[in-house]
Amino acid sequence: MEKTIIFACLLSVLLMSSSSPPAVMGKYYSKSRVVPVPLTQKKTELHFFMHDIISGNTPTAVNIAAPKGVVVGEGNIGPFGAVYVFDDPLTVTADPKSEVVGNGRGFYTVVSIDVKNSWMLLFTGDIGFTSGKYNGSSISVFSRDPLVQTKELAIVGGRGQFRMAKGFLIINMVYFNATNGDAILEFNCTVFHQ
Ligand SMILES: *[C@@H]1O[C@H](CO)[C@@H](O)[C@H](O)[C@H]1NC(C)=O
Ligand SMILES: *[C@@H]1O[C@H](CO)[C@@H](O)[C@H](O)[C@H]1NC(C)=O
Ligand SMILES: *[C@@H]1O[C@H](CO)[C@@H](O)[C@H](O)[C@H]1NC(C)=O
Question: Which atom of ligand 2 approaches the CA of 55 most closely?
Fold first, then answer.
């Protein structure tokens, strides 16, 4: 009788331990837990200008790919399938010589077939700040980006002080040269974060 009880105890201990395998077995996830969400979140508004310069000897945006046989350049800056990588300065005013507060880095791709009537990019960029309160923090943008005077893009995340960010940005085209693609863009961001 006593032996049976001991055996039963051992068996249950074995069964319990087999349901949570030891770390050496290569478990790569933790048990999910229910956590409280904050009742409030922060709302921060950001205002700055991004300079996207394709022309000249020191461009901030470069064409890295295009459809086979298509030459991208002045007069044909954005055929369907063209991809640009950018590292654009962010400044406090529309003047390129004004104070730099960060940089927008990423790539954009022409994603509309009908570029004549509905020219559209997919903007995939990390907008990072290098001064002030948000130095070292950035917001992640992943969005459609049509060629219109004023547009809205989605903020899908962030780093640092903008961890878990969500929000939107309104971009106003201050300057655009359709021949060489140079642009100065005014960004008004509304960011909700923790
Ligand atoms: C921003 O942060 C970096 C890294 O911590 C630091 O080196 C730099 O001096 C800071 N810049 C400003 C303007 O505060
Ligand atoms: C647009 O770019 C072209 C080619 O670089 C240049 O000739 C023209 O002057 C520019 N237009 C404006 C308004 O800056
Ligand atoms: C962006 O914000 C600035 C400063 O708050 C404001 O003057 C401007 O009208 C706003 N632009 C847009 C397109 O919302």
Answer: 5
Amino acid at 118: S
Hey, which of 148, 169, 186 would you mutate to test ligand 3's pocket, going by the most ligand atoms within 8 Å of its Cβ?
186
Q: Any residues with CB less than 8 A from the CB of 167 and at least 6 apart, and which?
A: 139, 154, 155, 189, 190, 191, 192, 193
In tens, the pLDDT along 121-158 reads 999 999 999 999 999 999 999 999 999 999 999 999 99
Q: Are residues 131 and 101 in contact, defined by beta-carbon separation less than 8 angstroms?
A: yes
**Distance in Å, CA 179 to ligand 2 centroid:** 7
CA distance 84 to 80: 12
State the distance from the centre of ligand 3 to the C-alpha of 129, rounded, in angstroms.
Answer: 19
| CB atoms inside a 10 Å sphere around CB 89 | 19
Spatial CA neighbour of 104 closest among 49, 166, 162: 49
Closest ligand to the CA of 174: 3
69 phi/psi in degrees, rounded to 5:
85, -5
Q: How far is CA 127 from the centre of its chain?
A: 7
Structure tokens at 19: 């349901």
